[in-house]
Amino acid sequence: MNNINLIFITGLTASGKSDLAIWLAKKIDGEIINADSRQVYKFLDVGSGKIEIDKLKEIRFKNKKFIICYSKKFNIPHYLISQQHPKYNYSLGKWLEDIDLLIGYINNKAKKIIICGGTILYLRALKEGWQLPKVKPNYNLRKELEKLSVDELYKYLISLNKERAKNIDKNNKRRLIRAIEIIKQQGSIPELVKTPKYNILTIAPDFDWNKLENKIKKRLKVRSFRIILEILKLKRRGLSFERIINFGLEYRWFGLLVKNLEIKSFDYNKFIILKRDNFYQNIFENCYRDIRRFARKQYRELIKMKDLIWVKNKNDCLNIVKNYIN
Description:
Order of helices and strands: EHEEEEHEHEHHHHEEHHHHHEH
Low-confidence stretches: none
Mean pLDDT: 94
Number of helices: 13
Number of strands: 10
Number of domains: 3
């Protein structure tokens, strides 16, 4: 393990991770690396809950091009936001490769390194130092597997390797396809090698369930109109409904809405009328239900981490971080 100290701010959806990370970065002269599996994609802005971005900049480090997004609030550099075109998959293995490079880049600048996001798989992989198998994409196989539903893919994975199937999100089509791809090329899933590389302080904003669920619902109401517009833009950029829906949660339910109602153009007056429709109400409630379920799944994963520190406010977080970095 090297002597690079990282601060990983994680937590439940809508719990205030991004706001805390930006505030903390301002206080300690830090820069932020994204750890959200949807925010890494370009054009998935509203549904994934990206920060407000003021400007973009391209850099090249060790022959790899990265996009730096500067937040409107405090002008804090963010990495691995809007990095990948949504037509192409961005895997956990890719994230681990990129974050190693970016940790080196930011460390060379003598800045504090903050990682922020709610994709718990990313957090676990980084903390435990997962060494993933180097299996190149098989695009012909992926094309065939894309035709299958998540249920069909999960059953297929069970037939190939029951143990791998026990430890995967059976509703995540991208991860199911990647697991099948590895097994098909290597004959099995190799034993996971874990070699921790970094010292990591892990922090999450504390929360109250009732307040969090109310915030999730309020946020979804505010974003719904713009999510529909965003899905229409994604369609115009050449993404299929299947691809959009595979991004899950807001993209799944509002993608189904746009597809089933055959919406081609949209404005706020149409949205006001649509909100009165029972089909829209069902879509909204299903989406709200799934986001709440996702938050509870995040919580179940986080409470397994014995070294995770729950902070009640920003100043508590700052004091903990100062003690850590000093």
